[in-house]
Design a protein that fits this description.
This protein is α/β, with parallel strands linked by helices. 35% of the residues lie in helices and 14% in strands. The strands form four sheets. Strands 1, 4, 5, 8, 9, 10, 11, 12 and 13 form a nine-stranded mixed sheet that branches. The protein has a two-stranded antiparallel ribbon with strand order 2-3. The chain has a two-stranded antiparallel sheet with strand order 6-7. It starts with a strand and ends with a helix.
């Protein structure tokens, strides 16, 4: 198997991914040494695996085989979107149509995907919720609890959206609905294998949420409520599944109102196995969206190094590894076209991969990274920038231009990945 593997570690008999002495170890069936990896975000995997709307198992097999061939065995995947169809900027089909009412095609798609990952000795980080609109998430649970419709960032602006989301940590009914969903998914038994998900070695970790935030604003300081929600959700998952790792899905500093004490707190709970950070140079204003230059790239790398370095002491104090599970850089010229070059992105990816490689060589705390994201063999529509129903799925969800951060199979970046994932 093509992974980063450390040396001189004792054998482990564990059947599941786990942390020991501040390092991640694989199931015994895969190996017995500390695990360092390069992985991908592949949020739409469950949809491809279904036999319903959007399903394409032929493409799924092709994508998984291609990912494995270049050494990518760790995939971060959305379990499913929430809410009714037809919502602007939201992916379709959705898994949870109404509280506790699920699309069985997608649940069986999740079962099928886990089987296919297991066959290839691949693993999945399965995230259960989303702070952002593109899969419903926080906003949909608030609406189900009786709150008014949430603002759409592309229509109403990002500030309006974030001000609205302050309500989630204060709404007990919304959080209770999410808890019921967590119970339903984590306690599921795979309909193909007959094996409970709690006993599936292909699960790398359960993840509470994609980029959870307290969304604190002025007097509405949700940080303590947010930390308690992370803790309670992690404890709930652990009560159902004692075997698998659990992670937060946090961006780190920027997901915690720039409060590093909060970053450390939410990753300090015994149920949380490793530290998460995300890095988005363009989204965070480190690089221009208008024909970014070499100077933008250099600043992005410098700022990213600072961001990583801020989190390393936390991981060291907690005795837990850290995973850079989201990062992205646009194609040259901020182009969405597959035909455009990716020299700047290649250089940025190489910088991030170098962080993992140096950590591997020194036995450090950076255990791996997952780039955003794998677009693979998708052919986005040439007639529009944004996804519409019937278009192929790329790494870019419905709220982003298709091709913005997608890594396609023919991109030069693939060779950068192959170089680092097979060292």
């Amino acid at each position: 198997m093509l992974t980063f593997l450390g040396c001189n570690s004792p054998d482990t008999r564990s059947a599941y991914w786990h942390v020991r002495d501040g390092q991640i170890y694989p199931p015994a069936s895969i190996g017995s040494e500390p695990y360092y990896f390069i992985g991908a975000n592949f949020w739409y995997g469950v949809i491809l695996a279904s036999e319903g709307e959007g399903g394409d198992r032929e493409r799924l097999h092709r994508e998984l085989d291609a990912l494995q061939a270049i050494g990518l065995n760790n995939l971060r995947i959305l379990v499913g979107a929430d809410g009714p169809a037809g919502t602007h900027s939201k992916v379709e089909p959705t898994l949870q149509k109404a509280p506790g009412e699920y699309d069985e095609n997608l649940l069986r798609g999740l079962d099928y995907l886990m089987v296919e990952l297991g066959r290839r000795n691949m693993s999945a980080v399965l995230y259960l919720n989303n702070a952002w609109e593109w899969s419903g998430g926080f906003g949909q649970y608030l609406m189900w609890s009786g709150e008014p419709p949430y603002p759409i960032p592309l229509i109403d602006g990002g500030n309006a959206y974030m001000e609205y989301m302050v309500r989630f940590q204060r709404n007990e009914e919304a959080k209770a609905l999410f808890r019921e969903y967590v119970k339903d998914i984590v306690s599921r038994t795979n309909t193909i294998t007959g094996r409970p998900y709690s006993e599936d070695p292909a699960i790398f970790s359960w993840q509470i949420c994609n980029e959870p935030r307290p969304f604190s604003s002025g007097e509405n300081d949700n940080r303590s409520l947010f930390a308690e929600w992370i803790k309670e959700t992690a404890q709930l998952i652990r009560s159902i599944d004692p075997n698998h790792m659990i992670s937060t899905g946090s961006e780190g500093k920027y997901g915690c109102e720039s409060d590093m004490v909060l970053v450390e707190l939410i990753h300090s709970y015994p149920e949380i196995d490793y530290v998460n950070i995300h890095i988005w140079p363009t989204n965070w204003g480190w690089s221009s969206r208008i024909n970014p230059t070499e100077e933008d790239l250099e600043r992005s790398i410098s700022k990213s190094q600072e961001y990583v370095d801020e989190h390393l002491p936390i991981a060291s104090r907690l005795g837990k590894p850290i995973i850079i599970e989201e990062f992205g850089y646009p194609r040259d010229g901020y182009s969405f076209s597959k035909e455009s070059t990716t020299e700047h992105r290649d250089a940025y990816y190489e910088f991030i991969f170098g962080q993992v490689e140096q950590s591997r060589l020194s036995g450090g705390v950076i255990a791996g990274c997952n780039f955003w994201g794998w677009g693979g063999f998708a052919e986005p529509s040439p007639d529009r920038d944004y996804w519409q129903k019937g278009d192929p799925y790329t790494a870019d969800p419905a709220q982003e231009p298709q091709g913005l951060y997608s890594l396609f199979h023919g991109d030069s970046t693939v060779e950068i990945i192959r170089k680092y994932s097979t060292i």
